[in-house]
Amino acid sequence: MAGHRAQWKGFIKFGEVSCGVGLYTAASTSDRLAFNTINTATGNRVNRVFIDSETEETVPKEGQTKGFEVESGQYIVIDPEEIAATIPQSNKMLEIEAFIPCREVDDVYFDKPYYLVPDKTGADAFVALREAMSRSKVAAIARTVLFRRMRSVLIRTHGKGLIATTLNFDYEVRSSVKAFEDMPKMKIEGEMLDLAKHIIGTKKGEFDPATFDDRYETALAELVKAKIEGKALPKRKKIEPSKPNDLLAALRESAGLKKTEEEKPRRTAANANAGDGRPRAARGTAGKAAAKAAPQRKAG
Description:
CATH class of the domain at 8-29 and 86-172: Mainly Beta
GO molecular function, one term: helicase activity
Protein name: Non-homologous end joining protein Ku
Keywords: ATP-binding, DNA damage, DNA recombination, DNA repair, DNA-binding, Helicase, Hydrolase, Nucleotide-binding
Domain Ku: 56-185
Strand order of the largest sheet: 1-2-6-9-8-7-5
Helix content: 25-40%
Order of helices and strands: EEEEHEEHEEEHHHHHH
Subunit structure: Homodimer. Interacts with LigD.
Shape: extended
Distance between the termini: 113 Å
Strand content: 15-25%
């Protein structure tokens, strides 16, 4: 992958077949605007330092290590080499354990996506795997050591290659049952449900990531530019929250029915002013026709 550095290099293995591959970051925040922390008194940049909690002295990077708190203020020191020794030797092998239906994994388990790209010597085995998975409509579950942790990885076909998404472990995913345990039991039907379905029908579209602009990032860029050029700063637009009487009224408004409902009283009032329910011009024409058709009385 030209111009990019692999986050991990190793081998992917399926059955007795293996080939060299690399994992490349699929999503990055490096293009976002970045701010530094500034001392408001001097205007100088502030550097982050680590301070000993007791002596309050600065601790250099080489003097820092990991530790696990066993009691308040009591720690077991864990050396990085000791951590590395506990990691299985399969840290360079992405071994496929099973092939599963593509949509079997709930995306709540998705962590980070990586492009899985073959090296120059393993392209034929890689392409064979990709084509077989594509035609069989399956994804693959594999495991390896990534960034000093054993990780489960979901591998799917993606364009000319494969995409590998690290998965959260079950203990890391919070229970959806607990998240929704306070949801009230209710049944929505009738006009309320029909209006909601109507709104969905009018908003149907297709997913195109190019149409989703980062408005926050754009606003930050405009702010920075205005500050550099000494121009007036952009003002925040005041948001007027809607205050519907109830959910049904809000749904009617969203479905475009508010205008229709408001026009009815005006039309009724206009008809009432017309007397017999016909426009004035129509009443005048009808009156003239009736007078012309009526028999003429002779004088005397």
